[in-house]
TrEMBL record:
InterPro entries the UniProt entry points to: Cupredoxin (IPR008972), Phytocyanin-like (IPR039391), Phytocyanin_dom (IPR003245)
GO CC list: plasma membrane
Residue ranges constituting the Phytocyanin domain according to the UniProt record: 25-124
Signal peptide range in chain numbering: 1-21
Organism: Stephania yunnanensis
GO molecular function, one term: electron transfer activity
Subcellular location: Membrane
Record protein name field: Phytocyanin domain-containing protein
Length: 124
């Protein structure tokens, strides 16, 4: 293989992996533990890079938890009503449509106060 072909292959491979890193990734909140009480979602989010076009999936027992999208103030103070959106199917997924910070809390009991809350920063 000539050096030129070799370089070309490296370039193509590198750009393909860049493309595949952008958009379309599904982030299962909390990984295997899902959306529940007590995992540290700050730690979980630290290990993720969220881009526009990715999907955020909340996986949980619908009898035990829910998902409420709120603003920053409501996130800090665990205010459930009014909110931006509420979900309770146990399998709630959203496509991340814009580059922005987003906040989610659980709407059941004192779960939010116990730390069942997630803040993510969606990059372009
Ligand atoms: C944030 O949400 C709370 C209620 O959840 C509401 O009272 C407040 O006005 C909102 N703040 C902004 C800046 O939208
Ligand atoms: C969760 O929802 C997705 C579609 O949003 C669907 O493809 C998947 O089968 C659902 N999973 C379960 C366990 O219901
Ligand atoms: Cu909960």
């Amino acid at each position: 293989m000539s050096i030129f072909t070799c370089l070309l292959l490296i370039c193509v491979t590198a750009s393909l992996s860049l493309v595949s890193a952008r958009g379309g990734e599904t982030h299962v909140v909390g990984g295997d533990e899902g959306w529940t009480q007590f995992p540290n979602y700050g730690d979980w989010a630290q290990g993720q890079t969220f881009h526009v076009g990715d999907t955020l999936l909340f996986n949980y027992d619908e009898d035990l938890h829910s998902v409420i999208q709120v603003n920053e103030t409501a996130y800090e103070d665990c205010i459930k009503e009014p909110n931006l959106a509420a979900f309770s199917s146990g399998n709630d997924s959203f496509r991340l449509a814009e580059a922005s910070r987003q906040w989610y809390i659980c709407g059941v009991g004192d779960h939010c106060e116990n730390g069942q809350k997630l803040s993510i920063n969606v990059l372009p």
